[in-house]
Amino acid sequence: MKKILMVIPLVFLLCFAFGCQNKAEKAELEKYRAQAEVEEQNKAVVKQLMEEFNKKNMDIGEELNTPEYKLHFPIGSEPKSTSQHREVLKAFWSAFPDMTHTIDRLISAGDMVTGQYTIRGSHTGEFMGIPPTGNQIEETVIGTWRFSDGKIAEFWGMLDMLSFMQQLGMELKPKKE
């Protein structure tokens, strides 16, 4: 009986020691799980954004962007607000009314999502002074979205504007002296 009474405190001591160690590991694991969940939610927002762009939903920016949202894109040098981004979209959708966005891949880390998506459309309206050509365009865009509290705070987009313009029939020629 005395042996059992001596073993019971030892068992409790061991359980307490291993239980505390396990709690720290569990807390760290929960932190990583929570971060992974946030990253998946951010990717889901980008997917929703692209789906809404394909529906030509102009109001999606007000829902998914922070009030301080900034667009960084090769057209123009200054960052653009949500309302200015809307004007960029109007210009694209006016020139390419059937434009679609197809996500090729997305990678999320921390508060950033980086992805590659393809835009496709028919040039049936004026674009940047270029009259409609009827040409089909297909261009890959590399984009990075920065999130703040589950909303898009900034977007950086890059596409090959030379290739884009060539698909519209523009030619690159050397300067004449």
| Mean pLDDT over the full residue set | 89
* Largest sheet features: 5 strands, mixed
Query: Can you tell me the CATH class?
Result: Alpha Beta
Strand order of the largest sheet: 1-5-4-3-2
Strand content: 25-35%
Helix content: 40-55%
Task: Round the Cα radius of gyration to an integer and report it.
Answer: 26 Å
CATH architecture: Roll
Number of domains: 1
Strand and helix order:
HHEHEEEEH
Low-confidence stretches: none
Structural class: alpha+beta
CATH fold call? Nuclear Transport Factor 2, Chain: A
Task: Specify the number of helices.
Answer: 4
Count of strand segments: 5
Spatial gap, N to C terminus: 107 Å
Q: Characterize the overall form.
A: elongated
Write structural notes for this entry.
The model has no long low-confidence stretch (mean pLDDT 89). The protein has 177 residues and is of the alpha+beta class. It contains four helices and five strands; from the N terminus they run ααβαββββα. The radius of gyration is 26 Å and the shape is elongated. The chain has a single domain, classed as Nuclear Transport Factor 2, Chain: A (Roll). Strands 1-5-4-3-2 form a five-stranded mixed sheet. A hairpin with a 2-residue loop joins strand 4 and strand 5.
